[in-house]
Amino acid sequence: MADANNPNGGNGGSGATSGNGKNGAKVGLLEKVTTAVKADIQAVKTDIPTKAKEQIEGLKDPTKTQVYTSIFRHKHDDTPRNRALGVLSNVFLHLHPAKINRDAVRYSYTWGMGGITFYLFIILTYTGVLLMFYYHPSKVQAFRDVLYLEHDVPFGKILRNMHRWAAHLMVIGVWLHMFRVFLTGSYKKPREFNWNIGVLLLVFTLLLSFTGYLLPDDQLGFWAVTVGTNMARATPLLGHEGPFGAQLGMTPYNDVRFGLLGGSIVDANALLRSYIWHCIGIPIVASVLMIVHFWRVRKDGGISGPAPVMLTEEADKPRRGPKAAGE
Amino acid sequence: MDWRQLWEICSAPDNVPIVGLIPLLAFYIYLAWKQAHANDILIEQLEADPAMAKTHHRKTWPFKPGWAKEVHVWPFLLRIEFLAAIIVTIILMVWSITLNAPLEEPANPNLTMNPAKAPWYFLGLQEMLVYFDPWIAGVVMPTMIIIGLMVIPYIDTNPLGSGYYTWKQRRFSIGTFLFGFIILWVAMIIIGTFIRGPGWQWFWPGQTWDHNRLIYEVNRDLPDIFGIASNLGKGIFGAIIVGGYYLLGGGLVYSLFRRRMGKDFQRMSLLQFSIMQFLLLTMVALPLKMALRLLWHIKYVWITPWFNI
To answer: Which of A203, B12, B51, B58 is the most exposed place for a label (fewest CB within 10 A)?
Structure first.
């Protein structure tokens, strides 16, 4: 018995050597089990609560847990280093530098239009994906899907409204962004190339909006796209009604408008084409251009200003930089 | 005054963005002008006082030597971005709750909408169709606008006004851009949206859209006025007029530019200058052609068997 009570659990070994009969072996097994169970119960009563208490105590500071430290790689007490790391160690925020000129946060200068445009693009992607769940780009279904969306799908109406109005806002945002960039001379050296990327993004924003216009397959979209693509008939050289088009063998069935619409009239193929351009083709191209655009903003020295003003007599001298000007 | 008609046009869901754009543009022009004006005053001060120019921090905002030149993005910029995102979301939500996206009857190729309008941001181009053939208004002009915008950084050689608002240092470039953006783009859109009614006819704001209105416009071609009848004559005449416009106009631009903006002219290469000249003249040709049409009912200037301008 004393042997069986050995907390070291040497039962197996001692039982095998000191066993004095079959009965004894049976008793040994039973005792072994009961003592083991008793030990377990004892442990549940004492060890586990202590351990749990310790661990719950540990959870009171979640920033020390393994999960947390695996996600957030730096401390969060308010030190300059941590403020910088908060930006630099985050893939989404690291578009920004860690520090910027104190005047660069004045939104009377930037109007925030570039950022707002990008945010609207994100909203449009999000609502657009949700709309795609309910929409079939076919002549039979398209219009009915929009009706279904408006009247039966929970929150379908606000989803469509948000997509439409965000698209209009994005066009306005792009224009105002471009206007601001021009007025502040931000396209000047060394940002010439990025201005060009911006012009392309303007074009793709308009094309995104325009290709989306046809998708409800209603009179508004149909005639807008008819008017819009009819101009393509008149493309010089490539359209059948354009200058020198007929001489180059252009007909309604092989010219550039045919290529845009997938036919000689705005019909099922045009619907499918504008759907694919709208949902896949142009967003991919525009996203790539946006990546380049944002990258170049950083590489060209961050946002252009508000910079110290230059005087006329300094125009043709090499720029000395703001520090020399006493800032 | 037909208020109902006016309200119908202004409250058409797809016209609301333009109704919103007008005050928004006015506000941002004011905001830009305010800063440009302040900077121009500062520049004038500093140019008059070289000693001050050496020590001044060159901005209209206060700065004291002890202040940090830079601030942390977190939180000073990110909080602004976060707030902007929230505000935009709220505006968008309220707008989407209060105003429904338009949905007309199912597409029907046999029932023409009158007026059949392009989306509002293309209405400037559609308005151009009145004055130019589709190959110019629909293809050449958009291409020229895109190319014109893209070459701006390469033909604007003025190093002043980079990174701050100013008017006095960049009168020509800002003036040209305002002319192109406000007059030729936004104003055309406003005409296309609010003025053009059935049959793409001119209806003043508040005038009832009369679907049966007929206007007998007698449009003439410029060669006809001069009594030129033969096709060959018309072609040669038009080529002379258009070529003459670019030659004389080019000479005028050259003469003005050399006198008024000598420094900019000196900085520009001949290629840069001629591209600028050509784009500027093409841009100015637009309102000129509009005036010919609206005031003198002249349709084409240059008639050939292949294209008309």
So the answer is: B51
Which of B56, B93, B108 is opposite residue A219, by nearest beta carbon? B108
pTM for this structure? 0.88
**What range defines the domain where residue A300 resides?**
108-305
Query: What would the pLDDT profile of A240-255 be if each residue is shown by its tens digit?
Result: 888 888 888 888 898 8
Same domain, A52 and A148: no
φ, ψ of residue B202 in degrees (nearest 5): -80, 115
Global ipTM:
0.94
Q: Is A3 domain-assigned?
A: no
Q: Which of B93, B123, B127, B165 to mutate to test the interface with A (most CBs of A within 10 A)?
A: B165
Whether B103 and A210 lie within 8 Å, measured CB to CB: no
Does residue A327 belong to any structural domain of this protein?
no
Each residue of B166-189: pLDDT tens digit? 999 999 999 999 999 999 999 999
- Name the one residue in this structure whose structure tokens are 């967003």: A283
Asked whether residue A114 falls in the same domain as residue A260, the answer is: yes
Half-sphere exposure of residue B273: CA atoms within 13 angstroms, side-chain side: 18
Chain A residues close to B126, C-beta within 8 Å: 227
Report the alpha-carbon distance of residue B43 to residue B49 in Å, rounded.
10
A:B CB pairs within 8 Å:
311
Asked if B192 and B124 touch (Cβ cutoff 8 Å), the reply is yes
DSSP string, B77-97: THHHHHHHHHHHHHHHHHHHH
A175 and A36 in a common domain? no
CA distances from B224 to B90, B242, B303 (A): 60, 16, 10
Indicate yes or no: CB of A312 within 8 angstroms of CB of B21: no
Residue A247 included in any domain: yes
Helical H runs in chain A?
11-18, 22-59, 66-71, 80-88, 107-110, 113-132, 142-151, 156-183, 192-214, 219-233, 256-261, 268-276, 282-299
Look up the CATH number of the domain holding residue A270.
1.20.810.10
**A119–B88 CB contact, under 8 Å:** yes
- Distances in Å between the Cα of A169 and the Cα atoms of A215, A269, B8, B25, B239 are 19, 29, 21, 13, 43
